[in-house]
Amino acid sequence: MEHSTSTQRVSRVLHWVGELTSRASSTVVVAVVVVVYAVVLAVNGFPGRWQTGFSTAAEAVTLIMLFVIQHTQNRQQLVTQLKLDELIRASPHADDLLVHLEVAKDEELIEREQAQLAHHDALRDADGNPVNDTNADES
Fold first, then answer.
1. Which of 14, 45, 53, 105 has the most CB atoms at less than 10 Å from its CB?
2. Are 88 and 96 in contact, with CB atoms under 8 Å apart?
3. Predicted TM-score (pTM) of this structure
4. Assigned domain for 126 exists
5. The domain containing residue 31 runs over which residues?
6. Is 130 helix (H, G, I), strand (E, B) or coil?
């Protein structure tokens, strides 16, 4: 799957914005701006146009950040999925059907979940304590 250079540039900008806005210093800057704006509004008698302008800007930033967060989370999820798929492929005892489980039907997901729960339950004794694994490394 090939992406155009403009798509790649947009992706880089979105990641840069995501990284920039995820810093603690960004939160401090936004908090200071909001407090200063509130003080200036109070001093000037809360002009309606200023409130409308601030509201519009806040809504625009919120919408942009929605797309930034969605884009970065989708990319991170894809990277994590690819890493997990590689680990599954590398393990000789792993179930290869798990590699593309994210596109499975809901019924198959429920069936696999129940099988996993049954497997975990089988690893516990009647009191709910883990059964000793003879292959586990001892400290």
1. 14
2. yes
3. 0.59
4. no
5. 5-75
6. strand
